[in-house]
Amino acid sequence: MNPLIPLFVVTPLVGAFLIMITGRFIKESDKYLTSFVLLFLVFISFYSLLTTGENLSVYKVGGWEPINKVPIGIYMVMDGFTSIFVCIINLIGFLSAFYSSSYIKRYTAGNYFYALFCLMIAGMNGVVLSGDLFNIFVFLEISVISSYALVAFGVEKNELEASFKYQVLGGLASFLILFGIGFIYWKTKTLNIADIKEVFNAGYDKSYYLFVQILILSGFGLKAAIIPFHAWLPDAHSSAPSPISAMLSGVLIKAVGIYVIIRLFFNMFAVSEGMAILITTLGTLSMVIGVFLAIGQWDIKRLLAYHSISQMGYVVLSVGIGMTLVSRGANQEVASLAIAGGIFHLINHAAFKGLLFLNAGAIEYTIGTRDLKEMGGLAKSMPVTSATSFIASMSISGIPPFNGFFSKLIIIIAAIMAKFYLLAALAVIVSIITLASFLKFQRYAFYSKSDVMKNPQIKEVPFPMVFSMVILSIICVLLSLLAIPDIRDAILTPAVNILTDPIKYSSIIIGQ
Amino acid sequence: MIAYIMCFILFLVGLYGVITRRNLVKIAVSLSIMEISTFLFFALIGYIDGGIAPIVDPADPAKTYVDPLPQALILTAIVIGLATTAMLMAVIIRLYRKYGTFDIREIKKLRG
Prior knowledge:
- The structure holds 2 protein chains of 2 kinds.
- Chain A has helices at residues 7-25, 29-52, 80-103, 110-129, 133-151, 157-188, 193-201, 206-224, 233-239, 242-267, 273-295, 300-328, 332-367, 378-381, 383-397, 403-417, 421-447, 463-478, 485-500, 504-511, and strands at residues 57-61, 74-78.
- By secondary structure, chain A is an all-alpha fold.
- Chain A has one domain (7-511).
- Chain A has a two-stranded antiparallel ribbon.
- Chain A is globular.
- The mean pLDDT of chain A is 89.
- Chain B has helices spanning 2-20, 24-46, 68-99.
- The N and C termini of chain B lie far apart (45 Å).
- By secondary structure, chain B is mainly alpha-helical.
- Chain B is built from 3 helices and no strands.
- Chain B is elongated.
- The A-B interface holds A 134, 137-138, 141, 145, 148-149, 152, 155-158, 160-165, 167-168, 171-172, 174-175, 178-179, 182, 185-186, 189, 191, 235, 239, 296-297, 302 and B 11, 15, 18, 24, 27, 31, 34-35, 38, 41-42, 45, 67, 69-70, 73, 76-77, 80, 83-84, 87-88, 91-92, 94-95, 98-99, 107-110, 112.
């Protein structure tokens, strides 16, 4: 029993309710309380990242012990893969919340904003910590319902329309997931992920199994905006307030989409080759189509949102390659490398995409537009925003020595070693197109000459916004260190091991 | 078996509504129909022929009970469904105030 695990969910939940009450009576208490709650979560998440390693600890909610080795209570599980995720969620969450403390002044009802923010964090922490299928669904709904409200927070035409689209497609995804859970429960009579794995190991019906996998993949694929299911993402992510865009793009689509897909397909279903190739194909499509859709955009946040689809494609692609190799049973080292590359890129994407959205928010905060054609010459008047967005742009396009370069390099090397030459070539080409697209962003926003720069009103954004952007850009540079073998072994390898080992996850949980 | 097929047809009715209707409120209603079909499916998988309410009778432990877990899950899911429907309706009311119409063809500021 690890007593820290429930704190990840309980603290933000309690925080959300306290904020609703205190925010009404004590002015500005809401933002300090949110930052405090999230800072506390950042500390305990890094503490668990450092202490977890190869271990796997379980918290049984309500203390329900298993009977005859059959788990009956709700399990919350902390392992190497989860601990990486809680770090991303809470760190980006803290920086976005701190950034919001000056950004959110343009909206009324700040305490509702922070309460919803904390609920979203609680939901995402719950999703990644849960070892129980239905609990994943409940926490997923907590986080996405608060994100529906946060996308519509501006209550203007764009925000409402985006939120409506997001809700209809999100609702559809939830029903697909619920159906999938129902079908799994029907055959296995259990909801614990490890226990389901044990039941499936004892034998299953092939076509039924495939049907369930497709349901689960399309449900969580809709949440993760993998390409045939991406229609809601650019609207929702570009219409939300900027710190929320950073959370949605940087964390939410990963925690409730990619994380669950990876976790369920490795640790619950036995990976089949056909399914692995399907996932690889979806990843490739997202990577290529996403970047082509991004090229023509002139709205900064829409451009970034389309790039999120493309970058998530990299993650899904490399995890898919790893999955294919695992299912073939050959070349475990290359499989581990591919999965490590995917997880590495996922961490990096959280850092640089979060930073880019915060930059976009800073630009919008200062000059009041998101259209690239109406900007120009901001480099002089906003040096910090300019410098940090340069770092983020270079990271996302894969320029050394920034973090994006190393993760893309690992993905490409893994693809070549696995003999997926076409995919490796596509990954390089997409990276070049990404660079072109971000050079356009840099040039139009910061370097070209325009009338905007003559306006003396334009100056650097307030301290909380600058602080968050600088910290994130430092993280962008520091994350390159994960490419060093020793550090990689300490952080990425436990996550990869728990995924690639077919029985470790289930046997440890059932054994406890 | 027929009950499962009816439940699936209900799901498809909802899906058809979401895809073809042009009225925001009707889309919300269609989503609710899909939701109900999911709940019905859960109630069906917990049902056992001849089962009684799952309250254990110590005098006669050999009785057949229906599976209580899906019922508990559905209670949770109904609450979640209520929250999503309320949220969707709130956004629809706000959209109506902005555009003065429920027609989805008139609401298309976001493109591309």
